[in-house]
Amino acid sequence: MFLLTPFLVAVVCILMLWIFKNADGGTERRNGEPRAEARPWVDEDLMGSTDVHQEEAGTAPSGAHTEPWTFVVVKDPDVKHKIREIIEEEEEINYLKRMGPRWVTDLKKFRTNWIKEYLDTAPVLILIFKQVHGFAANGKKKIHYYNEISVSIACGILLAALQNAGLVTVTTTPLNCGPRLRVLLNRPTNEKLLMLLPVGYPSEDATVPNLTRKTLDQIMVTV
Ligand SMILES: Cc1cc2nc3c(=O)[nH]c(=O)nc-3n(C[C@H](O)[C@H](O)[C@H](O)COP(=O)(O)O)c2cc1C
Q1: What letter does residue 114 receive in the DSSP assignment?
Q2: What is the CA radius of gyration of the chain?
């Protein structure tokens, strides 16, 4: 019994040290994680220079020629900030509670977190909504066949057009933010957020992840 006591004291001490260290580390991680990102944008007024690219995206093919897309171009700093607030609030829940450890682990290599400074600093935010249905002239619902595929093709064309013009963006799909952003931007209930593209010219110190791509023989099969 007397021999065991010092041993137990030592174990308790080690345990307390471990708990203390981890609690501290946790705070450090939580405080450390929302670091400022390198700003990939040159803050300059793009004027109407992205409008032409939305027009190009609008030439995308669509199921039964329904053209089920709406491009909301946000330049107003106050609206951009409100968008940021909504997204950061929802993304913090995604990272800490909603999505689970596998999702968080899968994203680790991209070093993203719920802090989205670019939503304030990018000169333009383009939010692309898919119209899940439309309205006929008599006010009845009009089916928008393959609306998600059609809008995704339009987004692809928009990405190519932006890149072609020397602009940069990152494809984002703000998780669980769609309904609040739709209300903020006064979009009708038949529209659902598909993608958000922050757009600007690249600053000189902008970096991109160094990822290798699959080779042609891994992605193409000739029959
Ligand atoms: C459909 C899609 C959704 C994405 N969603 C997000 C997102 O919500 N947030 C983000 O930071 N990046 C997002 N990304 C960006 C990817 O993480 C980014 O493209 C990454 O660098 C993958 O490399 P790659 O696009 O060169 O293959 C998304 C990309 C795609 C294509």
Answers
A1: S
A2: 24
Distance (Å) from CA 19 to ligand 1 centroid: 36
* CA 54 to centroid of ligand 1, rounded, Å: 20
The ligand 1 atom nearest the CA atom of 170: 15
Q: What is the three-state SS of 126-175?
A: EEEEEECEEECCCCCEEECCCHHHHHHHHHHHHHHHHHHCCCECCCECCC
Those residues of the chain that have pLDDT short of 50 are: 1-2, 13, 15-38
Of 173, 168, 170, 191, the residue nearest 44 (C-alpha): 168
- The C-alpha atoms of residue 86 and residue 125 are separated, in whole angstroms, by 14
Q: What confidence tens digit (pLDDT) does each residue in 109-164 have?
A: 888 899 999 999 999 999 999 999 999 999 999 999 999 999 999 999 999 999 99
